[in-house]
# Entry
Amino acid sequence: MSRTPERRRTSGGSQIGHEGDRIHPLTHRGDVIGVFTSGGDSQGMNAALRAVCRMGLYLGCKVYFIHEGYQGMVDGGRNITLASWDTVSDVIQRSGTIIGSARSKDFYTKEGRLKAALNLLLCGINNLVCIGGDGSLTGANIFREEWPAMIKELVSRGSITAEKAAKYPNIKIVGLVGSIDNDFCGTDMTIGTDTALHRIVEAIDAVQSTAQSHQRSFVVEVMGRHCGYLALVAGLASEADWTFIPEWPPPADWRDILCQKLQESRLYGQRINIIICAEGAVDSNGSPITAEMVKNVIVERLNYDTRVTVLGHVQRGGNPSAFDRLLGCRMGAEAVMALMDSSPDLEPYVIAIHGGTIVRVPLTRCVERTSQVKKAMADKDWETAVKLRGKTFIRNLETYKLLTKMRPPKDVDTLSGGHKFTFAVMNIGAPACGMNAAVRSFVRNAISHGCRVFAIKDSFDGLIKGDFQDINWHDVTNWTMSGGSFLGTQKSLPTKDIEKVVSQLRKFKIDGLLLIGGFEAFHSCVLMTELRDKYKEFCIPMVTLPCAISNNIPGTSIAVGSDSALNEICGLIDKIKQSAIGSKRRVFIVETMGGYCGYLATLSALASGADNAYIFEQPFDVDDIKRDVQVISRKMKSGVQRYIIMRCEKANANYTTQFIMQLFSEEGKGKFSTRINVLGHSQQGGCPTPFDRNLATRMAAKAAEKLVAEARQSVQAKGSVYTKEPDSAVLLGVGDHGSECIPILQLKDKADFVHRFSKERWWLKLRSLMRILSGHHGFYEPTALTSDASSEMSTDSSSNSK
# Structure
């Protein structure tokens, strides 16, 4: 192995990882890994199992699957099976866990743990990957601590020899958090949470039509145990009228407030009401609030037709989202690397995600932090409980409180200083899911600060025509769940008629501008900022909010809309794979959008289990294509007899999708057949995913804050706004530590304007992992840094986690 075992320690005791170091194959022959899932199942576990298995095999390890969780470890025998490459073929898109999960009473006993230790020793397992919740991970750590004593006792009983005991004096463990509740401190997201949100939001979207028809109210009960994350984010993503969560109990008179709010919504023409109730919701005294209680209040006081929908275990089912597949792949691969790095004297780690970075966090500190939340809840210390959930939870809660108001707040936030600024918002570029959610959030946040908002129709085409609409609080109701762009969006630049653009901004007295869109939005902001010396109308605060399925914009690791596109692609590939299974010996070449940017092709390949991805950023030639033919021929002889290749639409001007199909057809005569699927504009459609809805909502709220703050600082004596400060024209991006405003001109050199993408592409480091997990030779660049658990509190956003 080419990486060094030394690890630099920081003053806080955390350790810096080896991101970017190369790991070569077969460097850990002789190591044996056992992997199991425990507790409640969650979508994405199979992706993690696949990654653990294949990364372990890539390094030369033996990998055992321990079926039925800790109970299978105790029972042994056929519950512990040797895994092969083909064992995890075609599982990445399946929910649940292929090796079963169970809660074991036997493992709680000393005798049960002794049996488990003996069964592991019989297989030579001295490395464990535990995929489960905090209880499962705590059990694994106790097992690790007791291991030396259990070995001695097994020797004294004659169950194992002294030689065997000497060979396995310790056991190393690493944890992956698989839970739909997202209640584990130390990671922004747990495996399964995003998919559970998909199921919840899909159900609420579906129920809205029947509610609309009959003017009904629906009380939707969601899972989450004593964590309100699912309910809170689902409430934001579905524009729920009210959300009950454990960490933020309603006031004592919540019944009066709820009924007044529902009555007001009907007065404003709203035909439906959605109330979300977390299963662990309580009032300020700690007494449970149930969905049935809420329904009875509405029926008795308002006489509204009200129904209760308990989603139950539907939330644990369905195909995993693209996010959970990617999270499982990345965490599973890093878990193996962490085991190989570990030694008996090192504290065990949990593999977590902070922002978009996979990190290793000390297990015991995470468990302690999670226990502190439970204690705060038990003590009814709600403020501490919310704080311990982290900054992302706090921000979601603040956004929910604002956006669910029926009218603008009477007491205008002091952020505007009493000024009445006039802002404009527009969509620019290709349509992307989340554009409407961003507009809604911006409009309501700006109005809450006492500002007036104009919506500009059809990008710069509409601006030039003077198509400005004075938009108010209620105009944007029910925008969050809709894809596309209600404002209309075009791929246009201000240079189309710069004088007319300036004239219209002057006419409507615009004090600040929000550009929501793709590379054209970024480019437009650059152009207008560069023209500030010539046109004072551009000397106003300007914010660009990246929103593009291609994720090709500099200054941000993730753009609104790219998650929805990835999920659309993965869903289509799942169907294509089914076709291939029936056809046998078939190769599919799937062409994605993205222009020259290979983000969609690469991440959809990793998330769907595709075999390769051809992209512009990594040039390929005919020899590379012919090598794929050789790999295809080998694969068709055994295992799953199909091959999926993703290709970015502008990967190569000469090696087109049609050319590759013709080459494959010629070289594969008698061995396999080849088909093409051009996914086209379906990737821009559909409903926005919960991730995109939530990201758009939070980012637009920050954009409003930025514009108000900059306008207030730049207001002149006569009330007009004038600024040429570099940080008054920014791109609001997502970095490793949350959202950040970057001066737009600083990003100019980081953009390739010819090919319309960013020169910095974090996702390229995932391509080697994609190749390894699909069975290609190569090396892996681990993506994790080791982090202190306390850094979770400083993480502002999980939005870069994709």
